[in-house]
Amino acid sequence: VVESGEAGRWISEEEHMLNDPEVERKFNFNLAKTLARANRDKLFMGKIFYLTPSVQPSMQVLTNIITYSGGRVENRRRKTTDQMKEINSGGNVNYIIITCEEDIHLVTDVLRAKL
After folding, report:
1. Angstrom distance (rounded) from CA 101 to CA 103
2. Minimal CA–CA distance to 50: which of 6, 112, 9, 109?
3. In degrees rounded to 5, what are phi and psi of residue 96?
4. Which candidate, 103, 8, 107, 13, places its Cα nearest to that of 56?
5. Per-residue pLDDT averaged across 24-33, rounded?
């Protein structure tokens, strides 16, 4: 954005692509290919998320990101560990908890169950 301002016009973003080789290696994916996909609105299709209250960015921001990407946010009542095991069976991760250090006490049972 700064360079576009200096140039007095929007410049191509191709020279400023977001990349993180370490994360790409760790999770075995290519960020550039992921961002170029036409169906990014389906990234979280079939995924259910539970957000703990103190997450950052805010619950509202994360909810927007998740729902705009095809996922569902469940904040009324978290699934039990047995329900999570069932939902995540078959090698798929379909129930995802997003938490933070301040809320870790809310998910100790999940951590103990190694889910």
Report:
1. 5
2. 109
3. -125, 130
4. 103
5. 86
